[in-house]
Write a structure and sequence with these properties.
The chain is of the alpha/beta class. The protein has 15 helices and 8 strands.
C-alpha cells in the first residue's frame, strides 16, 4: 500500500510521521500549486467547494507519483465536506485512476467505530509502534503550531518580514525531518532564537512603527489553514503590520472533534457560550465557531476580524449573516473573504491594505496605544 492524503496547511508533517511509524509507505503530494488547482477545476463539478477541487488535484498528482490509496476525513451535518469522498471516488473512477479511499468518519460517540477504521492503517504494526508513532506525530504537530504562533507575533515586528517566512519554512522542514523529540525541541528553540534576532532593534533604537494592530482569523477550517487556498493571508497581514491570531489549530480541533466526540464528552466551553446570544445550534462546519470566536476576539480587545470561506460554503454563509450584527453590537470591524479559483492576489492585497488602514485609523481615533 502506497498511501497519500490531501494537504491542509502543515498537516503533512504529523501525518507523515504517524504513517511512517506504522510501517506504511507514504506518498506526500506536492504542496498545492496552480497545476494542482487546474487539475481539480478541470475534473470537478463547477459548483463544488474550492477545497474539494484542491483535494482532487492533490489526489491526481499523488496518483501520478505512484500512490494507490488515499486517506481522508469524512464529515457530518449541513457541510458538504461529508460528501467529498463519494464524489471524488466517482470522479477518480471515471478518469481511470484506481485509487482506494480510506475515509475516517467522525466518531460521534462511538470509539469502536473509529478504532475499526484505523485497524487497516495499523496493518502489521504492534500497539507499541502505534503508541510511539502517535507520540512523535503529536509532538511534531505541537511543534509546527508553536512555530506558526511565533511567526504570527514576529512578522509585524520584524525589520524584514519576509525573513520570518523563510525562517518558518526552514524550521518546519527541520521538524519534518526530525526522528526524535530532542531534535524537534532543538529545531523549535533554534527558530525562536533566530526570530528574536530579526525583531531586535540595534542599540535599542526605535523605528517609529506603530504597535501592530491585532487581527483574529475565523472561518472554514481548510481555508483558514491552507496558505495556497487563502493566498498566504497570514504572511500578507504580517507584512502589512498586523499581528494575526488564528482561531483554528489542528491540535485543538483534533482534541474536540475526535477525542471528546469518541468519549461522548459534551463540548461546551467559551466559544459555544460566546456564540449563544447569536447562534444556539450547530450549523455545520465551523459556522458556530466563527461566530463564537468573533465575539471572543471583540471581548479581548482585538482591532478586527477576518472571516475566510470558500464560495458557496453554507455554514459560513450562515455565520456571515450573523457576524454583521456581531460587528455592529460589539463595535469590531469584520472583513468577509470569499475565495475560489477565480480570486486574484492583487484584489485581495488591496482589500487587506484598506482593512488594516481602517483598523489603524480606528485605533488612533480611540487614542489606544498598546
Amino acid at each position: 500500500m502506497k498511501l497519500t492524503f490531501p494537504h491542509m496547511g502543515y498537516l503533512y508533517v504529523p501525518i507523515k510521521a504517524l504513517l511512517t511509524g506504522l510501517g506504511i509507505e507514504v506518498v506526500v503530494p506536492p504542496r498545492p500549486t496552480q497545476r494542482t488547482l487546474s487539475l481539480g477545476v478541470r475534473y470537478s463539478p463547477e459548483f463544488a467547494c474550492f477545497p474539494l477541487k484542491l483535494n482532487l488535484g492533490n489526489f491526481i498528482e499523488a496518483y501520478q507519483m505512484g500512490a494507490d490509496t488515499v486517506l481522508m476525513a469524512g464529515g457530518v451535518g449541513p457541510c458538504r465536506f461529508g460528501y467529498y469522498a463519494q464524489v471524488q471516488r466517482e470522479i477518480l473512477k471515471d478518469l481511470g485512476y484506481n485509487l482506494d479511499l480510506i475515509v475516517l468518519e467522525p466518531p460521534r460517540g462511538h470509539m469502536d467505530d473509529l478504532l475499526n477504521q484505523l485497524r487497516r492503517l495499523k496493518a502489521k504494526a504492534s500497539w507499541k509502534d502505534v503508541i510511539q508513532a502517535s507520540r512523535l506525530a503529536w509532538k511534531k504537530l505541537k511543534a509546527v503550531e508553536a512555530i506558526e504562533r511565533a511567526a504570527h507575533k514576529a512578522r509585524p515586528r520584524a525589520l524584514v518580514p519576509a525573513q520570518v517566512n523563510r525562517l518558518q519554512r526552514s524550521a518546519i522542514a527541520l521538524v519534518d525531518e526530525a526522528s526524535d523529540t530532542r531534535s524537534i525541541d532543538e529545531a523549535v528553540s533554534g527558530y525562536k532564537r533566530d526570530l528574536l534576532m530579526l525583531t531586535k532593534r540595534p542599540n535599542g533604537v526605535q523605528d517609529g512603527k506603530e504597535p501592530p494592530v491585532r487581527v483574529g482569523i475565523v472561518g472554514e477550517i481548510y481555508m483558514v489553514l491552507e496558505p495556497f487556498a487563502n493566498q498566504n493571508l497570514e504572511e500578507m497581514l504580517g507584512e502589512l503590520g498586523a499581528e494575526v491570531d488564528r482561531s483554528i489549530f489542528l491540535s485543538d480541533w483534533a482534541f474536540h472533534h475526535i477525542f471528546l466526540d469518541a468519549l461522548r464528552i459534551k463540548k461546551g466551553g467559551s466559544v459555544k457560550e460566546a456564540a449563544r446570544p447569536y447562534l444556539r445550534h450547530f450549523v455545520g462546519g465551523e459556522g458556530l465557531e466563527s461566530v463564537g470566536n468573533t465575539v471572543l476576539y471583540a471581548n479581548k480587545g482585538f482591532d478586527g476580524v477576518i472571516q475566510v470561506m470558500p464560495f458557496t460554503c453554507m455554514p459560513e454563509i450562515v455565520a456571515q449573516s450573523i457576524l454583521v450584527k456581531v460587528s455592529k453590537d460589539l463595535d469590531i470591524p469584520v472583513l468577509h473573504l470569499t475565495l475560489d479559483e477565480h480570486s486574484g492576489e492583487a484584489g485581495l492585497q488591496t482589500r487587506l491594505e484598506a482593512f488594516v488602514d481602517l483598523l489603524r485609523w480606528r485605533r488612533r481615533q480611540k487614542g489606544v496605544r498598546s
